[in-house]
Amino acid sequence: MAGTTSTLRYRPLNLARWLIWGLTVLVMVVLPLIFTQGFAITLMSQMGVAIIFTLSYNMLLGQSGMLSFGHAVYSGLGAYIAVHTLNLASKGQIWMPVPLLPIVGGLAGAFFGVLFGYVTTKRAGTTFAMITLGIGELVFNCSLMFPDFFGGEGGITTNRVFGEPFLGVTFGPAVQVYYLIAFWCVVSMALMYAWSHTPLGRIANAVRDNPERAEFVGYDTQRVRWLTLIISSFFAGIAGALGVINFEIVTAENVSALRSGGVLLAAFIGGIGFFFGPIIGACVFVYFVVALSDHTKAWLLYLGLFFMFTVIFAPGGIASLIMMQVQLIARKRFARIAPYYLAATASGLLVLAALILTVEMTYKVSVDSAGGTVMKLFGVEFDAAAALPWAVAIGLWIVGGWLFDAARRRVGRVWDEIQAEFLQART
Amino acid sequence: MSAHAIELQAVCKSFGNTEIIRGVDLAVPRGERHAIIGPNGAGKSTLFNLVSGRYPVSGGDILLNGESITDLKPFEINRKGLSRSFQVTNIFQRMSVFENIRCAVLWSLGYKYSFWHRLGSLKDANLRAEEVMESIGLKRRRDTYAGVLSYAEQRALEIGVTIAGGAEVILLDEPTAGMSRSETADAVELIRKVSQGKTLIMVEHDMGVVFNLADKISVLVYGEIIASDVPQNIRGNQAVQEAYLGTEAH
User: pTM for the whole thing?
Assistant: First the structure.
């Protein structure tokens, strides 16, 4: 009887799950056919790599409660082993087809996960975080101390195109690399999702929530953390190897604290509480790093502000905001709050315009004034040193800020009313 | 195999210079419901923490089914068949009732650290979790997060998590603390039901519960057991009345 109930309970969810996975694969296949420019392909390739890396990080942070400041160690060392393997393969010294290189990176990542993880996972919480920081710095410094392996400041370069093409695939064109990354991205996502529904995945959640209780139901919490870190490092290594294929170079930056911090930011922006959160976070993060950095020198400032905004107003990340709306849509309340969302978005855009105007004019005047102070923004050319643009910026701040605050309050009120209705319906 | 499920031999525990447990000797036969009572600060919870491996002992030996568990870690003791509940509710707050119970059955069913089994397909684990939920009366709260359950429901879940792994020796630390009269009555019935055929050791302040449930009672005062006997004899024990029960015994 219990079995029958369970089957009935889970069947609709499984259908939705297949639909979501099917759509994800479809989107990944179709995207390069729509966005054919080289830049778009590069952007999507980097997003694919970042998705694997961020999801692997969230196995630690979101699912097991391990705040790591050194996750780049595993992707970076995986990348170094992969680049050396690729170089040996291109010289004909070993047999290694390019599509299988991510497995080499993954195994290397897992190997270092076994090694470093044994030390780092001895403790949880802040101690774990501090040890990972130390291991990260240790490996980064090693990268400068052992130039034969790490290639010094210039890093190690490689060539992904060698040997005879297989079915016409040489991995020379960027789109072929994209599809290879997309393939591994889907495989990795599916495996990491599957892991979260295994006994180890569930016990990792238990260790995250209440390590003491987990011990008293028979689990060695250190072993759970260690195994989770090894598996997470495996996927980080896959991401590292795909980065090698994509960029054909590995430098010390691959194992740096900057990269470890980046993946933390990406996971938080997307939302660590949901499986799909880091996927969103990775895409947003790569957009900031790759696309926005092409348009403005202040991209890092925008990223920092965006991160702050997310942590303050949506601590559960973008994924939690989406899930809150799903709840409203499912209970047919979204239409009631939608006009207020629209008002908040419109006024929020005014504030965003004010922010961009202020930041860009400040950059132009203070950092980039060697070629004059005339600049072009939103299609309008103006002098950043003149009074009028600053007056416009101040006006936008005041009007936009006031409207946004009013709209935000109204959204909050309607939201509370709807939640009260839900509560009443439950009781 | 020893006739005793649990044996404490001259167990001591000190924190710094303060002696909390002073050479406790106790033997609980298999299948007995044994209550440990005593005034506040007598060391009852500390004794539980020593037996379950939460604290290391300062001296003496603890045997489970004749085998020493003195230096073992909590998870190792649990795997040998001893499970415990806590005075302050200690469950997985962010998980559903079902997930709480399922987490507690996984090790005992041999799934250990498996990352190649799909949880949904573990028929034995899922069935066992459903059965335990049924036995603790939380089936209708199956998918509710543990953190939003009522206090009495959380205490019931605590007992569910404790017994789910099928341990033969169960330690319950003040299972009815903070409950209303009717909730306590329900809890007593629940404990009676789930401890059937098992060895139960419990620390409890409510004398009604103790005299209702226990086959034998040990009285702990200032870290020493001053009496260990059947409830009727404890009721009439002069030393116990003086040290602990006072006029309540009359």
Answer: 0.92
